[in-house]
Input
Amino acid sequence: MIDARTQLVGLIGWPVEHSLSPVMHNAAFAELKMNWCYVPLPVPPHEVATALAGLAALGFRGANVTIPHKRSVLGVLSSVSPQARALGAANTLVIEKHDRKAIRGENTDAAGFSAAIAAAGFSAAGSKALIVGAGGAARAAIYALIEGKAETVTVLSRRVAKAREVVDWFTVTRQSSTRLRAAGLNAESLIAHAADADLLVNATPVGMWPAVEGSIWPEGNAVPSHLTVFDLVYNPDRTRLLQQAASCGARGISGLEMLVQQGARSFFIWTNRQAPIESMRRACKQQLMHEAGRMG
Ligand code: NAP
Output
C-alpha cells in the first residue's frame, strides 16, 4: 500500500510509456515486501533541470534516466561516477542523503552488459567482438568489452564517421590493450567481419517492436555457428536476429538480460539490497507477453 512512508524512485525519459522498468522494479519491491514505488516520469528535454530539482524537493531516493536525457543530465548533476563520466552518460541518479539538493549520476548499462554475457558463459577476455551501431548502447558495450580485456572491438555503423567518433573517444579516454577499429556497415562488411569474430552485438534498434521482421543479419545467409550473438533489443525477447542465430546453431543472448542486470545494479545502488533478479526477469517477460497479446 502506498502511504506517507513510501520511498519513491522513477524513470525520467521522453517518452517513457513503453519502458519495462516500472513493472521490473515494482515486482522487485513486492517480492522483498519493501514499501517503495517506481513511477514513470515523462520529462521533455527543456524541463530536465527543473525535473531533477523537483525530484530532490519531493523526497525521491533516485531515478533512472533514459532517452533522450542520458547525456544531457551530466551537466546538471552535482557529481558523476568515473564510469558514467567515461561513458559520457548516466542512467541512474541518486539523491544524496547528506544533502538532498545533491544528485549523483551513475551508469549501470556497461555492468549490465558484462553480467549478461557472463551469465551466458561468454568470456570477453581475449575475444574478438563486432558491434553494429554507434550510439549509447554501443558505447556501454564497448566500455564493458575494454574492461573485460577483449582483444579487438570492431564498430560497424552505416555512417562510418560515427563509428570512428566512438572509437576515437575510447582510444583517447581508456588506455587499454584492446584494439579498436571502425568500419562502414553493409551486408558484405558485416558477413566478412563476423567470420573472424567471437561475439556479434546488435546495438541498433533494428528488429524492435513493431518492426519485428527486421534484422541486421542479411536474410538467406547463415550466421556462423561459432558466434555468440547478443541482440540488445529486448522487445521482443526473441528477435528475428536471435531466431536466425538459433537456426544456425549459434548461441544467442537477449537484450532483456542486459535490461534486468542493469536494473538489478540500479536497485542495489538505491536500496543497498540484492535485487531479486528472477522476479524482475519474470515480470518483464510477462509484460512483453501481455503487450504482444494486446497488440494482436
Ligand atoms: P541510439 O543512441 O539512437 O543509437 C542507435 C544506433 O543504431 C546508431 O548508431 C544508429 O545509426 C543505428 N541505427 C539506427 N537505425 C539503424 C538501421 N536501420 N540500420 C543500421 N543502423 C541503424 O540508440 P541506443 O540507445 O544506442 O539504443 C540502440 C538499441 O539498443 C535500442 O533498440 C535500445 O532499445 C537498445 N538498448 C537496450 C538496452 C538493454 O538494456 N538491453 C540498453 C540500451 C539500449 P545512425 O546514427 O546512422 O542513425
Q: What stands out?
A: The chain has two domains: 7-107, 110-255. Residues 267 and 273 are 7 Å apart (CA to CA). The first strand starts at residue 7 and ends at 13. The pocket of NAP is lined by residues 67, 109, 112, 133-138, 157-159, 162, 185, 203-206, 208, 232-234, 255, 258-259, 262 (CB under 6 Å).
